Amino acid sequence: MNASLSFQLSVIDFYTTFQYLLQYRSSDYIELNPDSYIPDTTVFCPFHENKETKAAKLYGKNKEDQNQSEKLYCFAENRLYFPHSLLSPPKNVVDKSVLFQFKSIIPYDPNWVFSAIWNHLPDTEKDYWKQTNPSLSIGEPVKKYGGLYREYKEGKRDLFSILKELS
Ligand SMILES: [Zn+2]
């Protein structure tokens, strides 16, 4: 998969939510309740020790916003986070300055999550993403996983059961 990290993160933030990704939190974060991450409510910040008073606000996807992703603003840290902030750092990155944004709450790295999403997108949606990012070189679709995609679309599988199969 040749997509750049920034492209991968855009796709991840578009298709996932805090609530969805937090289902896959590592055991260190088991006390976080994914169901409480409801858009446009105040929430406990998952990125720092926050247990008493909810220190963050989760903003839902806004259609007028080009990126259309959830955002979490932590008042205590004065920081803005995205769903991808929950992931573990990517491997083999040349530019180490990007690593700080990955907080390792989910034990999956961006390439893994991106691949699981991308390999199961309909061609029309892939075309849309390629058109918005014409300079990107993206790998060929992996045909042997076509059956998995069908099961995913029919709701027989979730994304991360597919992930496990691909890895
Ligand atoms: Zn925080």
* Helix-strand topology string: HHEEEEHHHH
Quaternary structure annotation: single chain
Q: Average pLDDT value?
A: 84
Number of domains: 1
Q: Within the largest sheet, what's the order of strands? A: 1-2-3-4
Keywords:
167 residues; alpha+beta; four-stranded antiparallel beta sheet; 31% helix; binds zinc ion
Structure explained in plain terms:
With 167 residues, this protein is α+β, with helices and mostly antiparallel strands. It has one domain (5-136). 31% of the residues lie in helices and 8% in strands. It is built from six helices and four strands. A four-stranded antiparallel β-sheet has the order 1-2-3-4, with no helix packed on it. Strand 3 (71-74) and strand 4 (79-81) form a beta hairpin. The radius of gyration is 16 Å and the shape is globular. The two termini are 14 Å apart. Mean pLDDT is 84; it is low at 137-145. The chain binds zinc ion. Zinc ion is lined by residues 45, 47-48, 50, 55-56, 74, 76-77.
Summarize the structure.
By secondary structure, the protein is an alpha+beta fold. It has helices spanning about 5-15, 20, 110-120, 125-130, 145-155, 160-165, and strands spanning about 40-45, 55-60, 70-75, 80.
